[in-house]
Amino acid sequence: MTSAHAAPATSSATQTGSSDLVQASVLLYSDDITTRDAVRAAVGRRPARDVEVTRWLECATAFAVTEALDAGGWDVVVLDGEAAKNGGLGLCRELKNEIYDCPPILVLTGRPQDGWLAAWSLADDAVPHPLDPIKVAEAVAALARARANR
C-alpha cells in the first residue's frame, strides 16, 4: 500500500541555480497513517530555507519500501521504528546492508533512550516519539543536504 504525493518530480537531490536550493524526494514508511501525516506536516514542502521537498511516497509495508528503493530516485528515507510486523529499525539495517549507495535514512524511535537501536540499525539520524516537528524537519533537511553534496 503506497500513496504518492507529487510535485514536479526530480530523480535525486540537486542543488539548483545560484540560490543553492536543494530539491529532494522523500520516501516515508509507517503502518500508522497518523504517524505518516505527522511527519509530512512537520517537514512540509520546505523543511529549511535551502531545502525543498519535491516528491513524497508514503509506504505502509516494508515490501513497498524495498520495491520503491529498488526503482531508485529517492533522496531521503524516513522509517518508523514502531511500525508493526516489520519495524523501521530492522528494515533500516537491512537496507543499509543490501543497497549500494543507500539514501540517508532517518528512523523514528519509540523513545529517546532508543538511540542505541538507531545506531545498531545504521541509521543516519534518529528522532524519538513523541515527534518534535522542528527536529523532524531539521533532520530531513540535513539528510537532503548531505545527499546533494555527495
From TrEMBL:
Transmembrane segments: none annotated. SUPFAM superfamilies: CheY-like. One of its GO terms (biological process) is phosphorelay signal transduction system. Residues 25-144 form the Response regulatory domain. Keywords: Phosphoprotein. The modification 4-aspartylphosphate is found at D80. InterPro entries: CheY-like_superfamily (IPR011006), Sig_transdc_resp-reg_receiver (IPR001789). This is Response regulatory domain-containing protein. It comes from the Bacteria. The lineage of its organism: Bacteria, Bacillati, Actinomycetota, Actinomycetes, Micrococcales. The keyword Phosphoprotein applies.
